[in-house]
Amino acid sequence: LAVMVVTAGVAVAGTLDEIAKRGKLRVGMEPAYMPFELTNQKGEIIGFDVDMAKRMAKAMGVELELVSTAWDGIIPALLTDKFDVIMSGMTLTQERNMSINFASPYIEIGQTVLVSNKIAGEVKSYKDLNDPKYTVASKLGTTGEQATKRLIPNAKYISFETEQEGVMEVVNGKIDAFVYDKPYNVVAVGQRGEGKVTHLEEPFTFEPLAWGIRKGDPDFLNWLNNFMYQVKNDGTYDKIYQKWFQD
Ligand code: ARG
């Protein structure tokens, strides 16, 4: 009983209080995912999520620290308190939502396909790739990987650790197709694939992207959702969007 009384009387400090006390917001991301987070030639991490993170820290009145983290360890890193929030173009999936919380989604995207020009005449949709004669790639631990395994199960699947390797293998004609988030594929075609790959631009999945936090922290979740409401309605979001997206 004594324990219960003590527990009930103590306000459990949430992440928001810790950020304020620390004077710093720590954001986890894997900066290889254009245009959300990428590393420029000067070695700086830039992108849509980075601009949002800067606004967020400013609104909190604290400094910002970007914590660069490998994609396949990003949820464990959040859970072991390496940073406060994942802002990394993460798709809100029901499976991930079992272990972490998500703020309200900030954008909706879907999977698209980059196909080698060698087979572009015969492959007009992701469905045409569903044949053992085709090799299809995506990135380890992503929704692109999940979608390929689920919706193109008969193709030979290869997993890459980086988005860039997957794109280059299609550009060089070593594999037939690369399945990934549409915004990434749009930028990749413009940068390295022009004339070498064909982008089947019609998304074939529905994926809301959202910021991820640890479970059991309603104060932080409330702050993030209200921040989102503010920036979506005061022009901030649109300004950042137009900076990073052509359409
Ligand atoms: N939206 C995809 C997913 O959640 C890919 C995100 C990859 N993000 C990154 N920063 N590498 O699985």
Structural notes for this entry:
- The structure is a single chain.
- The protein is built from ten helices and 15 strands.
- The protein has 247 residues and is of the alpha/beta class.
- It has two domains: 12-107 and 207-244, D-Maltodextrin-Binding Protein, domain 2, CATH 3.40.190.10; 111-200, D-Maltodextrin-Binding Protein, domain 2 (3-Layer(aba) Sandwich), CATH 3.40.190.
- The strands form five sheets. The protein has a five-stranded mixed sheet with strand order 11-10-12-9-13, with helices on both faces. A three-stranded parallel sheet has the order 5-1-6. The chain has a three-stranded antiparallel sheet with strand order 2-3-4, with helices on one face.
- 39% of the residues are buried.
- It binds arginine.
